[in-house]
């Protein structure tokens, strides 16, 4: 199993700090999620129903008709490699969400890691190119026009362009979902980040219908529970909440960037939901913050940290105090601590 953010109980045991005393900034999930109210009892007592209104709500929110509901985008990430021949040449943006490369490698594919500047050159030498837009953790973004140009070149050889848009809800105008009627263009979305509903495990795959049919056959019936479908439908319909949340997350993302910069932690990239800092002091900073009950996401390659958003003014103040207390100079590195 790969390492991910959000392992709060593990951190609580390691640092002997109760779970409810932690400030968890490790995931990049909206800390103020869509407000889930009571779920109707029949959502618990009946099998999930495909005619419950979720697909209609998703089509309206995302602006595309051809979609498949899945148990979070992770389900699609693990299944998609099984729909390609193992002779396919795979290129994936790096650093990025590590489950993508892991899924392809676990299915026998050789994966080439690409930086953002290498993508254009690599298109013609690969059969599947996978991007995260905006990227996690680097925050790189790719325009609709550029992605469509790359897709056209791949499609001419029967290739795929897969785009994971987990963090794009803050800027939906940059999404490729509306173009996924084209063969070989696959977009993944979920309710985990912007909506803050990671625990519901609801995601969507947008692609040409024949690929969605293959994927549905592979995943089997009822991939998402009835209660999760109910919650997702209501969240996707809540336009006022979505509009206000986009505005608030933009402000909060800028605030986090400024706070980190003021404490000599200039972000190397990020989005409205997180900021990423490359530094050889990453593990030192991570450790000092964890000792104060603040959990960040630590990366080893490259040495870096990702900070998500605090949920309240109290949490913002707590992070500000912790950052100002860091006892680190420019010569301190992770290697020096080992």
Describe the structure.
The structure is a single chain. The chain is an alpha/beta fold and 338 residues long. It folds into 2 domains: 8-33 and 240-337, Aspartate Aminotransferase, domain 1; 41-237, Aspartate Aminotransferase, domain 2, CATH 3.40.640. It has 13 helices and 13 strands. It has helices spanning 8-15, 41-45, 54-62, 72-79, 99-106, 119-122, 144-155, 209-219, 226-237, 239-262, 282-290, 313-324, 334-337, and strands spanning 23-24, 67-70, 90-93, 111-114, 128-132, 160-164, 185-190, 203-206, 269-270, 274-278, 294-295, 297-299, 304-308. The strands form 3 sheets. Strands 2-8-7-6-5-3-4 form a 7-stranded mixed β-sheet, with helices on both faces. β9 (269-270) and β10 (274-278) form a beta hairpin. α3 (54-62) runs parallel beside α9 (226-237) and α4 (72-79) runs parallel beside α5 (99-106). The radius of gyration is 20 Å and the shape is globular.
Using the 3D structure, state the CATH architecture of the largest domain.
Answer: 3-Layer(aba) Sandwich
For the biggest sheet, the summary is: 7 strands, mixed
SS elements, strand count: 13
Strand content: 15-25%
Q: Which structural class matches the secondary elements?
A: alpha/beta
CATH fold-level label of the largest domain: Aspartate Aminotransferase, domain 2
Silhouette: globular
- Span between termini: 25 Å
H/E topology pattern: HEHHEHEHEHEHEEEHHHEEHEEEHH
Summarize the structure.
The chain has 13 helices and 13 strands.
Main traits of this protein?
338 residues; alpha/beta; Aspartate Aminotransferase, domain 1; Aspartate Aminotransferase, domain 2; 2 domains; seven-stranded mixed beta sheet; globular
